[in-house]
Design a protein that fits this description.
This protein is α/β, with parallel strands linked by helices and about 350 residues long. It contains 13 helices and seven strands. The strands form two sheets. Strands 3-2-1-4-5 form a five-stranded mixed β-sheet. A two-stranded antiparallel sheet has the order 6-7. Helix 2 links the parallel strand 4 and strand 5. The mean pLDDT is about 95.
Length: about 350
């Protein structure tokens, strides 16, 4: 590998890119500004002597990274949340941000993020679209219930949006026609979102069986509370590469499931979880952790999902059930709130999933 002679910082936006390059031989600082697109940036980088560039992850994605790598240029995508910035700095510009990245890269102070393969990223786009639809569906259902509440109508049973609830909704009528039209429109929005979500679910189930995804998905769905779509989405949120985490503790930290800590002198205060990393992956783990409040057991559904899996993966899954059940009830017995115990179980569950995904 050739030594780096030029460190480059790039501040990338939708319509402009500011660049700052530091030549290690002369100490000269060069600045450039480019318009939208990546071609000019990559052409300029290719003219520099042995460059190594870096830019912060953001809404522009990884297109610049892939274009530069295709030309043989060393480039990294770094975590903006871990970029050190002077606390007393009150002037922030794109030019200064680009120079800061170049100087931090030269000092080795940038935290590089993992860039997924293009196929993994494309399927992840679809899984996140499903998550957005889930949120849209929740909002659409809330609008229906709030309209009914404004007219003093509350469904008498605890479980909603099942067949009996839909029959009850179909019997609701209003005196004024505009309200009737609004109610029908809100119900149509719910039905349309449900149909779109079902179509995405079907597509994701097919994609999960791709040979590049299925081996790991099969292992993950061997755990209680994790079916095919949940296993697929977790795998995608981790970039399709569980082995990039050398230990479960690093995975805990990346998922934001470790407690925050404020320590100064002799004082030390532990707070809630950090909530860094993928909020989607964290939510999936917490939802799956709810299943471990019940006694360990292998039912028919779980047994069918585990069929054909290696014995050591099944042993990890069974140990997870036993350990997480004990953990949940031990924390509850100590007076911990249910949500706190569930998050603790989710953290431990991610470690068992890492062990199963990385096992030979």
């Amino acid at each position: 590998m050739e030594a780096t002679l030029t460190w480059v910082g790039l501040d990338v936006h939708a319509r402009s890119t500011h660049a700052a390059a530091i030549d290690l031989m002369t100490g000269e600082l060069k600045r450039m500004r480019f318009g939208p697109g990546n071609e000019q940036v990559v052409d300029w980088l290719a003219q520099l002597p042995q460059p190594r560039a870096a830019y912060e992850a953001g809404p522009t994605g990884f297109a610049l990274f892939r274009a530069a790598r295709a030309r043989g240029i060393a480039i990294d995508v770094v975590a903006p949340s871990k970029t050190a910035r002077p606390s007393g700095e009150r002037v922030k510009t794109d030019r200064k941000d680009a120079e800061l990245l170049a100087r931090l890269g030269l000092a080795g102070q940038l935290a590089v993020v993992a860039v997924p393969e293009e196929f993994i990223e494309s399927v992840r786009h679809l899984s996140r679209s499903r998550e957005q639809l889930r949120q849209d569906l929740m909002r659409a259902r809330h609008r229906v219930s709030k309209l009914l509440l404004q007219h003093g109508r509350v469904y008498p049973e605890p479980t909603t949006w099942n067949q009996r609830h839909r029959i009850w909704l179909s019997r609701q009528h209003f005196e004024h026609e505009p309200t009737e039209i609004a109610f029908c429109d809100l119900l149509a929005a719910v039905d349309g979102t449900v149909a779109r979500k079902a179509a995405l679910d079907e597509r994701l189930l097919r994609l999960a069986q791709d040979e590049r995804l299925w081996p790991t998905v099969q292992r993950l769905r061997s755990f209680r509370g994790i079916d095919t779509i949940t296993a697929l989405c977790l795998h995608l949120e981790l970039g399709g590469d569980w082995q990039r985490f050398s230990s479960p503790r690093k995975l805990f930290s990346w998922l934001g499931l470790t407690p925050t800590l404020a320590q100064s002198g002799e004082s030390s205060t532990q707070g809630g979880i950090a909530k860094t990393g993928s909020s989607y992956g964290r939510r999936l783990l917490v939802e799956s952790a709810l299943h471990y409040a019940r006694k360990p057991a292998i039912g028919v559904t779980l047994s069918n999902r585990q069929a054909g899996q290696p014995a050591h993966v099944l042993q990890i899954s069974w140990r997870a059930q036993q350990r997480l059940y004990r953990l949940h009830h031990r924390l509850r017995a100590r007076g911990k709130p249910f949500n706190v115990a569930t998050v603790a179980v989710a953290r431990e569950l991610s470690g068992f999933l890492w062990a199963a995904a990385c096992a030979p």
